Recover the amino acids of this structure.
């Protein structure tokens, strides 16, 4: 059974200028023990999708359609109260920018223990003890649980956030840009750590990033998002070696290749569209070098192109 | 914390204020053991309104009581009333400020309109009316001062809460499944506390002035000596017009010194906790 099943999710934000369709008809699924990478430019709806799964949207945001099943449980039917009880046991989140996600006036240990005390029948002392074990697990010396966040380095804070995410043995971990703002060495360490913990505890993981390169080693599947829609999904090989959507292709070419011939990475011209008024037809057409008439009027459907590889692009059909 | 103490030491205003206040607090605690005093114990007729001299360092009052002993006994009550009223006001102001700031919407609106009401109402007449209705005892004075002067604290706390509420760790705490009460108590309160502390010290200065004013106007507790009561009797018995300066000057100076000490500390702490105000 799938651990997570997202079907036709639509999350809109009401703004003073109208409805902003941050996530528009998005479907994906995740098997238990697997990792899914969600990739795309800033503002394409990656984080909004993730927050929808955790039902943590800011008050302007609303899920207007679709279904989300986590381990067979319909997440969208939960009341505020049930939601609070299930949080962190079902889905935990590693937040973007750990430096701000820790309370500066509480010790790191207290903050990890907080989640444990809220969900498990443990005393504060037992929870603090468990928080030490968790710190040990993420390779931070146990005795540092008494320290305050400002006494931790950036990488250590991120590790502490991971320890916190593991506190209640969640079924699914969402890493929202967990390595952004860390230097490359630390990035690699954090990703290895996440990978190891995920395998050891056979948790599902969604990794959100704008950096395709970090997904190759950590994920099983990749979903590429553009302007609130998923344009291509597939296994890592499907995406990296047989990308069918022009956007995925351009995204891959944005990174320098260390093998093969030396080439200057290309950018993608133009800007992501305004989601208050997205372009008609395929949302990528104004920036697409292959766009033809049909792309401007008709929205492409998502098609299977072999195995688990799906693409939403008219080109796939035309060239078949 | 140690850093904070070092900064207090380096700041002349804070240091002066702390030393003056510490002097008064110490006198209030140990003074009565050296200068025992009872308001109800009157002196001999020939001792009435004697100027300072041997035996009575600060002279005597209209009942032949020792002014120095009176002054020291009075400092106990004045400081106690000031401290407790401040504490009460701090609790009310902090709770209202945090709840209003964190809850937002209707709750915020209602609580802030109540705060505005207490902020603009002329506090002296309100206090006098309340004190008159509740009767004269030091507990009522504490209550009256506490419930009439929390509005400023509530405003300041609310403003800070609005800013802390938007920090990411609050979102994280929501995501681990914590309720509003938990977040306000464990995450917002510790983050707004330094500000509460700084603003409360200024409230303490006002509380002591209020106590003195109420007592001077005759709303005080006659069973307890306080600086305000001394001024009240000094005025009533005509000490001010007969030139018995040793009776009315010392309590006046004490009130001014303590209020000044609190004010200096308040401004200095504000400066220390709020680096933007630091002298360049």
């Amino acid at each position: 059974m799938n651990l997570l099943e997202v079907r036709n999710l639509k999350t809109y934000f009401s703004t003073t200028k109208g409805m902003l369709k941050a996530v528009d008809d998005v479907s994906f699924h995740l098997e238990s023990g697997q990792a899914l990478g969600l990739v795309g430019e800033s503002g394409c709806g990656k984080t909004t999708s993730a927050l929808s799964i955790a039902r943590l949207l800011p008050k302007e945001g609303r899920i207007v359609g679709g279904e989300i099943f986590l381990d067979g449980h319909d997440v969208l039917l939960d009341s505020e109260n049930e939601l609070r009880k299930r949080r962190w046991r079902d889905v935990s989140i590693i937040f973007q920018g750990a430096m701000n996600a820790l309370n500066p006036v509480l010790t790191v240990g207290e903050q990890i223990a907080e989640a444990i005390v809220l969900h498990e029948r443990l005393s504060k002392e037992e929870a603090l003890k468990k928080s030490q074990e968790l710190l040990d697990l993420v390779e931070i010396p146990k005795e540092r649980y008494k320290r305050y966040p400002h006494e931790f380095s950036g990488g250590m804070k991120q590790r502490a956030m991971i320890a916190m995410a593991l506190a209640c043995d969640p079924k699914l971990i969402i890493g929202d840009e967990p390595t952004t703002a860390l230097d490359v060495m630390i990035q690699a360490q954090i990703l290895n750590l996440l990978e190891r913990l995920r395998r050891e505890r056979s948790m599902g993981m969604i990794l959100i990033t704008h950096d395709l390169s970090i997904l190759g080693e950590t994920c099983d599947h990749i979903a590429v998002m553009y302007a609130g829609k998923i344009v291509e999904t597939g296994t890592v090989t499907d995406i990296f070696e047989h990308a069918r959507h022009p956007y995925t292709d351009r995204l891959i070419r944005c990174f320098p290749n260390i093998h093969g011939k030396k080439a200057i990475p290309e950018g993608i011209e133009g800007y992501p569209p305004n989601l208050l008024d997205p372009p008609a037809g395929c949302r990528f057409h104004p920036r697409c070098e292959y766009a033809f008439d049909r792309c401007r009027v008709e929205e492409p459907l998502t098609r299977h192109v072999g195995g688990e590889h799906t693409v939403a692009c008219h080109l796939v059909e035309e060239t078949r | 914390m140690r850093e904070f103490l070092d900064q207090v030491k380096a700041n002349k205003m804070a240091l002066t204020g702390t030393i003056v206040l510490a002097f008064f607090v110490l006198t209030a605690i140990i003074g009565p053991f050296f200068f025992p005093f009872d308001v109800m114990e009157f002196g001999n007729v020939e001792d009435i309104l004697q100027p300072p001299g041997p035996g009575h360092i600060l002279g005597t009052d209209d009942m032949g009581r020792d002014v120095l002993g009176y002054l020291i006994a009075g400092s106990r009550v004045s400081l106690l009333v000031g401290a407790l009223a401040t504490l009460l006001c701090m609790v009310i102001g902090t709770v209202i400020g945090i709840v209003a700031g964190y809850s937002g919407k209707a709750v915020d609106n209602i609580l802030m309109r109540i705060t505005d009401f207490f902020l603009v109402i002329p506090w002296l007449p309100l206090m006098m009316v309340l004190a008159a209705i509740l009767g004269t005892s030091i507990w009522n004075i504490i209550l009256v001062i506490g419930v009439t002067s929390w509005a400023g604290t509530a405003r300041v706390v609310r403003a800070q809460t609005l800013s802390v509420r938007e920090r990411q760790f609050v979102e994280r705490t929501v995501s681990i499944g914590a309720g509003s009460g938990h977040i306000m108590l464990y995450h917002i309160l510790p983050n707004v506390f330094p500000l509460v502390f700084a603003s409360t010290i200024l409230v303490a200065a006002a509380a002591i002035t209020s106590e003195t004013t109420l007592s001077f106007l005759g709303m005080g507790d006659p069973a307890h000596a306080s600086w305000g009561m001394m001024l009240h009797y000094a005025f009533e018995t005509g000490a001010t017009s007969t030139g018995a300066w040793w009776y009315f000057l010392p309590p006046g100076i004490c009130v001014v010194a303590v209020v000044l000490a609190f004010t200096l500390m308040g401004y200095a702490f504000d400066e220390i906790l709020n680096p933007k105000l630091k002298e360049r």
Q: What stands out?
A: The first strand of chain A starts at residue 2 and ends at 15. Chain A has two domains: 2-90+170-318, 97-169. Chain A touches chain B through 26 residues (CB under 8 Å). Residues 184-201 of chain A form the longest helix (18 residues).
